[in-house]
Amino acid sequence: MTDQRKRIAIVGGNFAGLTAAIKLSRRHAVTVIDPSRHFEWAPGIHEILSSVKTPQGLRLDRAAIVKQAGHRFLRDRVTVLEPAQGRLVTAGGHELAFDACIVAVGALWNTHHVPGVARHAMSFRSVADGLAIEQRLDSLVRESTPLRIVIAGGGLSGVEALGEILRRHRDDAGLSIELVESGARLLPGLPASLDADLRRICEPYAVSFRTRTTIASVSAKGVRLADGTRLRSELTLWTAGLAPPALLRESGLAPPPQVWADVHATLQSCHFDNVFAVGDAAQLPHAVGKQAYNAIDMGALAAANAVRFLAGRALKPFCRHPSRSWLRSATCRPTWSRAAPWLPARRWPVPRKASTRCSWRRWHPATC
Ligand SMILES: Cc1cc2nc3c(=O)[nH]c(=O)nc-3n(C[C@H](O)[C@H](O)[C@H](O)COP(=O)(O)OP(=O)(O)OC[C@H]3O[C@@H](n4cnc5c(N)ncnc54)[C@H](O)[C@@H]3O)c2cc1C
Fold first, then answer.
1. What are the tens digits of pLDDT across the range 5-64?
2. In degrees rounded to 5, what are phi and psi of residue 308?
3. How many angstroms is it from 227 CA to the middle of ligand 1?
4. Ligand 1 centroid – CA 138 distance (Å)
5. Distance in angstroms (rounded) separating the CA atoms of residues 11 and 341
6. Does the residue 43 lie in any domain?
7. Same-domain check for residues 233 and 292
8. Whose CA is nearest to atom 41 of ligand 1?
9. Residue 262 has pLDDT above 90, yes or no
10. Which residue minimizes the CA distance to atom 52 of ligand 1?
11. Position 339 in a domain
């Protein structure tokens, strides 16, 4: 007997995509496609740098979660998405037809085309990135090489990385850190007082902050600033900004000048009725931060709206949850379950309880 159910394809299965999958019932034929085996808890990866967390503690088996929800998981990368034809193709040669599609492909590392970044700087977007940085730090310490570090980007990721490096290496001889931010202050978008707090907390350590400063190029020996100043560095960490996946442009979901998939308040694509874009990949009519808690909420709404769309019913708009605030990277059990209630309760992999704030607080109790 042929399957009469409507087909929903979910491209990308992390915060937004997996939430959508869990919210959809078996009344629909749902396929989640993602090239990577693990769901990753990105808000905790900075704590790999201090070895407080392990990669296993931040990963869950994606196939198991999708299977538990009663859906199909395809470990593959979508290379062609043709919304008008209701069709997608994967790198592995699979072709899938869909009645509705939820696009949750997230964001990529943004090198801003600065020469040398892709080759010589380390990215900080995934568990594997965190592990590579931790190993580099450890090998520098083992070799007794001066630990000169440049962190590009004074946003949350850069500051979290700084905190974790200090947490583990603040007593290591030869440690010096330069944090370079192109904006006027650290932690743009957060309360201005945090800039001064952060500088004060770091006063006892060999940390320098350079705001309103742009990096012109990166080499194996360090970075060159736009004003010609050279900063020596054994490790350059690049946390400066996000870039959209090419699939958004190639599929017509983000026609230029758009760069992200522009959607209505209902998360339905402005260009294709049968596509909903969510999470970091989506550009809503009103500003919504590219944060995991928003991705989770968008995933849930996209699932409900895809079902409404397929049934010919009116769609509902996305409202930011009033009680949500920045997920402080906590991976303690209750926090995981509060933040992402769909995660399978028996599969908590959590090794240690800590959050960014905890990490700052632990080694500098007076401040946080
Ligand atoms: C270092 C760091 C710290 C952060 N800290 C916080 C924090 O404290 N609090 C907070 O709320 N947020 C935080 N964030 C942001 C948060 O992680 C993101 O907002 C969130 O991951 C976005 O979820 P998403 O599902 O939209 O995308 P992602 O989590 O990026 O997932 C996208 C998925 O799509 C898949 N994919 C991509 N392209 C394709 C394709 N062509 N075919 C199939 N699959 C594809 C990827 O493999 C990936 O699994 C942090 C992010 C980083 C990097």
1. 999 999 999 999 999 999 999 999 999 999 999 999 998 899 999 998 999 889 999 999
2. -60, -45
3. 34
4. 27
5. 21
6. no
7. no
8. 78
9. yes
10. 42
11. no
| Residue pair 207/199 in contact by the 8 Å Cβ criterion | no
Question: Which residue has the least CA distance to atom 45 on ligand 1?
Answer: 12
DSSP 254-318: S-TT--SEEB-TTSBBSS-TTEEE-GGGEE-SS-----HHHHHHHHHHHHHHHHHHHTTPPP---
- What pTM does this model have? 0.90
CATH of the domain at 320: 3.50.50.60
Asked if residue 227 and residue 123 are part of one domain, the reply reads yes
Are 232 and 249 contained in the same domain?
no
202 shares its domain with 318:
no
Is 165's C-beta closer than 6 angstroms to any atom of ligand 1?
Answer: no
**Do you know the residue count of the chain?**
368
Closest atom of ligand 1 to CA, residue 39: 49
User: What's the domain count of the chain?
Assistant: 2
Question: Cα of 175 to ligand 1 centre, how many Å?
Answer: 31
Is the shortest distance between the CB of 293 and ligand 1 below 6 Å? Answer: yes
Please give the pLDDT value at position 366: 42
Distance 39 CA to ligand 1 centre (A): 9
Q: What is the mean pLDDT of residues 194-211?
A: 93
Same domain flag for 164 and 203: yes
For the CA of 130, the nearest atom of ligand 1: 1
